[in-house]
Design goal:
The protein is an alpha/beta fold and 377 residues long. It is built from 15 helices and 14 strands.
Length: 377
């Protein structure tokens, strides 16, 4: 266990409640739920501890206080930022205010983790680049998929050379979002599903292909999106060509009727010159070829559903949120780099905006067009 744990303040206590519970509760066995950690007990995090929570809605504060009673709560973001025990702010607020909340935290001397998408506008990107440059505060993007068990195993195998040179990356995130329109009606007006949903698979494509030279995309507005009055398209298929010529695809559909036994809502396929692998969410399976070409499956669901889902709905994020927050805090303590950082987050924004522009204008887009609009980036 680390000698020093950084204090974490959480802004936005809907999804943020998940992080507070993940950091403050025990890891349950395969049938129970976690409970508050006792003195000396080790939970999901070794390098951080929850100290504060903030939300405009009293009912969200009350729900968090019921399960995490021993931390400071407030409706005023400035009050949380003023606390000396808050070293890191983790942000779970609507996309359109991410840049504002990131800048406020950095200028208050706090490091930041911000849920994906990091930002959804060129102006927002410029704002956080300037805040980072002027304050020196560090930022990590809360890309939960990277920190889910099968994707961690897939990445470790890739880094040790099991699949060789990746030649094609195929990633998707599909999910019927009627419940999300009801929970977060702001999505109809203030964002685009290219940011809200495709931020998962596009980040995965970039993670493995590196710098992207060209993006071509098509899109459509589903019947569900039309029914709810959403302004943005919610079906996207985007092709990516890396600087070295390798290719990838990201697909998203947020009005579909799901067939989860056939396709998990998030999947990543790596096709390499030495092997092939697949990671899945929610089912927590990692499939890959073996040394002799045999097909192998690592199924972590029953062993790790307590850690990742707290034995609740297979879609909660207790494990991933705790994993990335603890990894970031460890990097701050040790002075090392933690990925995805601010540059990666803005690169992914440039790819998302390139895909949106390509779909709208019917032409391939070089992401350099978008990057050139962001001062000092």
């Amino acid at each position: 266990m680390a000698e020093r744990k950084l204090g974490v303040g959480v802004l936005g206590l809907h999804e943020g409640r998940t992080l507070l519970v993940g950091l403050s509760h025990t890891i349950p066995d395969s049938v129970s739920h976690g409970r508050l950690l006792g003195p000396g007990e080790v939970g999901r995090a070794q390098f951080c501890r929850p100290v504060a929570g903030c939300d405009l809605r009293q009912e969200k504060i009350d729900a968090c206080r019921a399960v995490c009673p021993d931390i400071f709560y407030t409706k005023d973001y400035a009050d949380m930022l003023a606390r000396p025990d808050v070293d890191v702010v983790v942000i779970y607020t609507p996309d359109s205010v991410h840049a504002e909340h990131i800048e406020q935290a950095m200028r208050a001397g706090k490091h930041v983790v911000c849920t994906k998408p990091l930002i959804n506008s060129v102006e927002g990107a410029a704002r956080i680049v300037a805040a980072h440059k002027e304050t020196g505060m560090q930022l990590m993007v809360g890309q939960s998929t990277r920190f889910f068990e099968p994707f961690r195993r897939q990445r470790a195998a890739f880094e040790q050379g099991d699949v060789g040179q990746v030649e094609f990356v195929d990633a998707h995130y599909t999910h019927r979002m009627d419940w999300y329109y009801e929970k977060s009606p702001w999505v109809k007006e203030t964002t685009d599903w290219i940011f809200l949903g495709l931020s998962h698979p596009i980040d995965l494509v970039r993670w493995y292909l590196g710098e992207i030279a060209s993006v071509s995309a098509v899109s459509y507005r589903s019947a569900l999106a039309q029914e709810h009055g959403a302004k943005s398209h919610d079906v996207y298929s985007a092709q990516f060509t890396a600087k070295d010529g390798r290719i990838g695809r990201a697909f998203g559909h947020y009005g579909l009727h799901e067939l989860p036994s056939a396709r998990n809502c998030i999947e990543l396929m790596l096709y390499g010159d030495k092997g092939t692998s697949q990671a899945q969410y929610h089912d927590m399976r990692y499939r890959h070829t073996g040394p002799a070409g045999e097909e192998m499956t690592e199924d972590c669901l029953y062993a790790m559903r307590g850690y990742y889902f707290d034995n609740e709905v297979h879609g909660m994020h207790y494990g991933e949120f705790s994993n990335y927050t603890d990894a970031f805090c460890r990097s701050l303590i040790e002075g090392s780099r933690c990925s995805p950082d601010m540059k990666e987050g803005i690169d992914v924004f440039c790819l998302m905006e390139s895909a949106r522009l390509s779909a709208r204008e019917g032409r391939p887009v070089n992401p350099a067009e978008i990057r050139a609009l962001i001062p000092d980036f």
